[in-house]
Design goal:
This protein is an alpha/beta fold. It has 2 domains: 1-51, Membrane-bound Lytic Murein Transglycosylase D, Chain A (Roll); 56-276 and 336-376, TIM Barrel (Alpha-Beta Barrel). The protein is built from 12 helices and 17 strands. It has helices at 12-19, 23-29, 70-76, 104-112, 132-139, 142-159, 176-192, 219-225, 249-262, 295-304, 336-348, 364-373; strands at residues 2-5, 43-46, 56-64, 82-90, 96-97, 116-121, 163-166, 196-201, 228-231, 268-273, 276-280, 291-293, 310-312, 317-324, 327-332, 353-357, 374-376. The strands form 3 sheets. Strands 3-4-6-7-8-9-10-16 form an 8-stranded parallel β-barrel, surrounded by 6 helices. Helix 7 (176-192) links the parallel strand 7 and strand 8 (196-201). The two termini are 27 Å apart.
Length: 380
């Protein structure tokens, strides 16, 4: 595979001719819509037919809700080791709250594709709201911990799940050790019954990093307790924040450099965003709200408005501006260049693999590039 950046006056036909590859291949891999217009600065993945170098094994995971388009899921499963179904909630006493939509069809699709379906556990209460108080109640009660472990085993056996992912955020600092103890207990129980446990970690850069998002997560303790971890290395650019890259590679690198001092590299999965944001300008704190946008959708938006896609070399991320209804917008998203930068980080630090938030929109060029760069582990 090669990455080509579209120049002025380029067409799909002229690019295909210069590389001596079928036009249809470029159109399909890059999800180019009829009439096959391109944006200046757009990054295209070109299948040259050569042999990829430095290809190594990697575990791949992606989160998805049960309302994912079945065609998107089917197109993505061949590139995954695991698919984490989002999500089960729980009560403070350890009773599980299933997803509002049926998850069994996703488990069946994953199983048929040779992919492990992972039960994602989040602190969602009976009203469907995030509630970190139920984390505190559950992890500080031995009875509740025992109850939730047994309930998880029952559901996983009944439905065919292959593991559990603990995705808790905003854990109170006072619950840090209790949470680590809960993960250690659950991992032991799961392993004894043939299942694995993973845990999602907020993107810390030091052990004593302040903030509710960070203080309850003990990297060293959780890295030792769980079978694997996911570094949530995204959301620097977020819905209510100022316009910037969702996962700037310089910031992502800082998290990885700290994580490897606390956690074995063969347990670490790098978090990768499969989305971008569109901000109306000017940005006003606590007022401006960005719209989530898919990566293919972002390019189409640039094409429709005649925008030139630029590339931030520090963040290793594409962005562009456009005007609609007299309002200027700034868009940051992911393309094959930004994905390549993240893949190189996985290789540089010999990480276990990567985990995507989330799979709801198909970004085929990413998956084709990933398969070109890595041998996807299919049997853990």
């Amino acid at each position: 595979m090669e990455i080509y950046i579209v120049q002025q006056n380029d067409t799909v036909d002229s690019i295909a001719q210069s590389y001596q590859v079928p036009v249809e291949n470029i159109i399909e891999i890059n999800q180019i819509l009829y009439p096959y217009a391109l944006a200046i600065g757009q990054a295209l993945l070109i299948p040259t037919g050569g042999e990829a170098a430095d290809r190594r094994s990697a575990v791949t995971n992606g989160y998805a809700y049960p309302f994912i388009n079945p065609n998107v899921l089917q197109a993505t499963l061949p590139y995954l080791t695991n698919v984490s179904i989002f999500s089960y909630g729980f009560t403070g006493t350890g009773e599980l709250i299933p997803p509002t939509l049926n998850d069994e069809w996703m488990i069946e699709a994953a199983t048929q594709a040779g992919v492990n379906a992972i039960l994602t556990l989040t602190p969602i209460d009976e009203q469907g709201r995030f509630n970190n108080l139920i984390i505190s109640e559950m992890v500080n009660s031995s009875e509740a911990r025992t109850n939730i472990a047994q309930n998880l085993l029952d559901v996983m056996r009944e439905k065919g799940y292959g593991g559990v992912d603990i995705d808790f955020e905003y854990i109170l600092a006072s619950d840090r050790d209790a949470f680590t103890g809960f993960v250690a207990e659950l991992t032991e129980i799961m392993n004894q019954n043939g299942f694995e446990t993973s845990v999602a970690l907020a993107p810390k850069t030091s052990a004593d990093q302040p903030g509710l998002l960070y203080e309850g997560k003990d990297y060293g303790g959780l890295g030792a307790a769980a079978n694997s971890v996911l570094l949530m290395t995204y959301e620097w650019g977020y819905t209510y924040g100022p316009p910037m890259a969702v996962a700037p590679i310089n910031k992502v690198r800082q998290v990885v450099e700290y994580a490897i001092t606390e956690i074995p590299v063969n347990k670490i999965n790098l978090g990768i965003p499969n989305y971008g944001y569109d901000w109306p300008l000017p940005y006003e704190r606590n007022v401006t709200k960005a719209t989530t946008i898919g990566n293919v959708q972002a390019v189409q938006l640039a094409i429709e408005h005649g925008a030139v896609i630029e590339f931030d070399e520090t963040a290793q991320t594409p962005f562009f501006h456009y005007i609609e209804n007299r309002v200027e917008h700034e868009v940051w998203f992911e393309d094959v260049r930004s994905m390549q930068a993240k893949f190189q980080l996985v290789k540089e630090f010999s990480l276990r693999g990567m985990g995507y938030w989330q799979l709801m929109r198909l970004f085929l060029a990413n998956w084709v590039l990933l398969e070109d760069q890595f041998i996807i582990v299919k049997d853990l």
